[in-house]
Amino acid sequence: MSLLKTDPTTAPQAPKTKSREWADSLIFAIVAATLIRWATFEAYTIPSPSMENSLLVGDYLFVSKLHYGPITPQTPLQVPLTHQTVWGTGLKSYSELIQLPTYRLPGFSEIKRNDVVVFHVPHETQFPADLRTNYIKRCVAVAGDTLEIRDGQVFLNGKPGVTPPGLQTTYFMQVDNPNDEVLAALRSQGVVDYDQPGGMPQAVADADGKFGYAISCTKAAADYFQKQPYVRSITVIQPPVQLFPDAADFRNSGAMSATPRNWSLDNYGVLPIPKKGQTITLSPANAAIYFKIVARYERNLGVTWKDGMIYQNGKMLTSYTVKQNYYMMMGDNRHNSEDSRFWGFVPEDHVVGKAVLIWLSIDPNADFWHKIRWSRLFSIIH
Fold this sequence. Notes:
Layout: H1 18-39, E1 41-45, E2 59-64, E3 77-81, E4 94-98, E5 116-120, E6 134-141, E7 146-150, E8 153-156, E9 159-160, E10 169-175, H2 180-188, E11 204-205, E12 211-217, H3 219-226, E13 231-236, E14 268-272, E15 279-281, H4 287-297, E16 303-306, E17 309-312, E18 315-316, E19 319-321, E20 326-330, H5 340-343, E21 346-347, E22 351-361, E23 379-380
Antiparallel strand pairs: 1-2, 2-22, 3-4, 5-6, 5-22, 6-20, 7-8, 7-14, 8-9, 10-12, 10-13, 11-12, 15-19, 16-17, 17-18, 20-21, 22-23
């Protein structure tokens, strides 16, 4: 008689416990959701009025990563090094940050003029690009374009660009008597001030002591108010701001252009948009335009700014070849949008995706019964 020995390599495994099955399912769901969010679609909400009236505060969007292609993570990896690597330092452990190259997987579309785009804001230099605040703006110019704005009208390569239908401008509307009739008219024309209770604009006095309302609205609404008997005048408000490239390094340093342009929000340019492979001759007249490209966006080392010129390792740069494409992004609420006119170009590797669909819209100023903007549900973004 012989004993049959069980081969441990072929013995049946014990069935998974219920808790293990739940844990495996949860891990799979998290990994699948992460991959879907990274590679296909991601949900966003609109928190500010910089894109009104095209997008409203309280709109919930789907943003497609498939259009331009998903991009690999840009957060540096913390890599542990062995004790032998740092022998003699007295350290028992050591690590360093390594920035891996960034790649964009193929998409089925290029970034085009007039696309509504989500991107990592360029000026938050304290974070890697993919940990920064996400902005949503309209792409008004692509790499290789020449941008100019004249009296609020965008011109590309000398020709008028497309004007979005929801484009807004900020006006001061002087009235004889701020009253309920005026407020009703503002409401009927869709004028909202999200900083005020109920979203209704409040009457204020301008620098000359004239009473009225500072409002952001479409040109059609402004034309309507211009014809009303209670309106004395309606004029465009031009806030005095310092713009790119006079301020070469928005919020990060005091780097200023050696050749001030004194552009305004409505009269801006002529500004060339850098294109991959383009070689730029640098001079005090244009160095401020390219400073952040050389110093930050393209990860060159030893770059500094001195006397209106770009230096690398102490040597003045007189030319530079651009390594990626760049874009100009602007909000549709043109006087109430911090955008490329303030901080310059958006690098291609900062672009997240294209906003394609509003799946829900909630009015923050409406009562319970009118909270949902039903007409905006499942509407395509243009």
